[in-house]
Design brief:
This protein is an all-alpha fold. About 85% of the residues lie in helices and about 0% in strands.
Length: about 80
């Protein structure tokens, strides 16, 4: 094994520590529950805003409302 300068070893350790810290920070950000919830919410809102989906939801809401009103009238 070649002799290595202690200062070089210390620099390599410091560099590895900094890289590890950045990796841990990135993983912590990706695993943050509030960020995950925000991403899911944004995805759902984007999906619901599509015209086909919006019309389908409106139609389903209308059907539910009509059934609800008929049940109230038939009592």
């Amino acid at each position: 094994m070649a002799d290595r300068d202690p200062d070089d070893i210390k620099q390599e350790i410091d560099k590895a520590r900094d890289q590890l810290a950045l990796t841990v920070d990135a993983l912590a950000e990706r695993a943050n529950p509030s960020r995950i919830a925000d991403d899911v919410k944004a995805g759902v809102l984007e999906f619901v805003k599509k015209p086909v989906v919006a019309v389908s939801i409106a139609g389903l809401g209308t059907i539910v409302l009509v059934v609800f009103i008929r049940r109230i009238k038939n009592r």
